[in-house]
Amino acid sequence: MKYKIIKRVLSTTLSAVIIGTVLTGCGRSSGAGSSSGGGILNVFNWTEYLPKSVINEFEKKYNIKVNYTTYSSNEEMLAKIQASGGQYDIAVASDYMVDIMKKQDLLEKVDKDKVTNLKNIGDQYKNLSFDPKNEYSVPYLCGNVVTVVNTKKFPQGISSYSDLWNSKFKGSMVVLNDERALIGMTLKKLGYSFNETNKSRLDEAKSELQKLKPNIKIFDSDSPKTALINGEAAVGYCWTAEAYLAEKDNKDLKTFFPKEGMYAFEDNFVIPKGAKNKENAELFINFILQPKVSAEISKAYPYTNPNEAARKYIGNECLNNKTLYPDKEVSDKDEHIKDVGDTTKIYDSIWTQFKQ
Question: Please, is 167 exposed, middle or buried when counting C-beta atoms within 10 Å of its C-beta (0-12, 13-18, 19+)?
């Protein structure tokens, strides 16, 4: 899934310092796949979802030039890969999008003999319904969509999605620019699934979502924390890492878990069909799954890390944080987004009309 921080241009020396400091805590032409590396790698990922220091380290270690391009939603990524003709060697796709891309024959199988560090990923994050044998995807980072409230302005916070429709929040909210997240939240408010396919229930959600519009001030999937930190918005519906970073910068902010259950996601590395540098892509994935490298990513982008071997390098500040690693009674109510087939057209229509 995802957030934007101030871009930093790091020298090789500074990159090495950052790699070293991760041990103390937290704070989407043909290349060769051998250890000697060489060639290029075209990476397509969510905005600000991988530290530049990690890219620099990979380039230096394997003599591979990384061309790095970003997107802001799964749907944007899908559309560009559909039209790319093998332009990208590796992308990051959320769980349901892996399923969609598999069905559209847009993915190459991952050679797991070349991604031996897959063993570092916890069993609960592997072999999930969207890719039962992890033939086409490798887990990267996970998280939820949570609500964040400035408790100085709104001391009561929120306990349910229905609270967000309260008129006291008029013009106060920053929300993800994400149709499945917003429509899904509305469906949960109504007592339905994030993955509802019943047309009458979706029509009900369409009407209900329109009622939320006066409360929304900003749509932002890249950096919703910015509006929360600077006070431009007092309520957020955003990714967990965004919530965590916002809380660190503004002590009036607090994360709440709606009682209906949260949108959970697992982002995964995938190799688009026709990738020209597939071996380099597999080399990159295996590199990212090294414990210290994975921990460095979590230091910069503190989502839930499925790499269990990396956790001893991440630090307790993150691992003990309930926003990033919620208690079981909270996470048991989570629901992952799934491919809803032809019903996607209804979701698209609802979203298009809502954003007009």
Answer: exposed
Q: List C-alpha distances in Å: 307 to 50, 133, 173, 286, 354.
A: 15, 17, 33, 12, 38
- 218 with 299, same domain: the answer is no
Query: How many other CB atoms are there within 10 angstroms of residue 71's CB atom?
Result: 21
**Does 183 share its domain with 294?**
no
Domain identity same for 282 and 215: no
Note down the domain range covering 196: 144-263+325-355
Label residue 329 exposed, middle or buried (CB < 10 Å: 0-12, 13-18, 19+). Answer: exposed
Backbone angles phi, psi at 163, to 5 degrees: -60, -30
Domain holding 137: CATH number? 3.40.190.10
pLDDT digits (tens, 9 = 90+) for 63-74: 999 999 999 889
Question: Tokens 């032809």 label which residue?
Answer: 342
Rg (CA), the chain: 20
| DSSP strand pairing (253-256 vs 107-108) | unpaired
Residues 249, 183 share a domain: yes
Residue 287 inside a domain? The answer is: yes
For the chain, what is the domain count?
Answer: 2
Q: Are residues 34 and 109 in the same domain?
A: yes
What global pTM score does this model have?
Answer: 0.85
Q: How far apart are CA 140 and CA 294, in angstroms?
A: 9
pLDDT digits (tens, 9 = 90+) for 258-317: 999 999 999 999 999 999 999 999 999 999 999 999 999 999 999 999 999 999 999 899
Q: Are 86 and 272 in contact (CB under 8 A)?
A: yes
